[in-house]
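Hi everyone,

Forwarding the result from last night's run.
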Amino acid sequence: MRRENKEVIIESITNLLNTSANLYVTDIEALNAEKTSQLRRLCFNSQVKLVVVKNALLKKAMERTGKDYGDLYTVLKGTTALMLSENGNAPAKLIKTFRKNNDRPILKGAYIEECVYLGDNMLDTLASIKSKNELIADVIALLQSPVKNVLGALQSGGHILSGVVKTLSERPE
């Protein structure tokens, strides 16, 4: 491959890394063409971008982004496929779903919201990470909870009070 071509590929990978806050480095080497096609289709439906890259070019692109990938450079061996997503847990959930019928992809490492995770044993942890929208929904639910309790108490209090008044009014003197 000519140097000019490598530069274009490195710039393309750098742009992908800069536009995505979440990066999964996986190994899909043992998948045949049919299984790879199924994985790509599943990625497309889950809004996860799947890109097979050369390790040397990926390393140069990662260095150009200016982000601190920490120990993620150590997993750049063998065949490497990137899974990029706006949702931090989407690729992990996708990998778990796909591995119900396959033994790949294997998670080498991940970079999620400036945190580095290494090894396939982190897959369950990554799948359980809540997305930004899920966290916002949890905070809103927590903020609404006291208000709902007060409103519920006021509404039930009105029923109790009206029941007491009704009972007292029906009571013979």
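The mean pLDDT is 84.

Cheers,
N.
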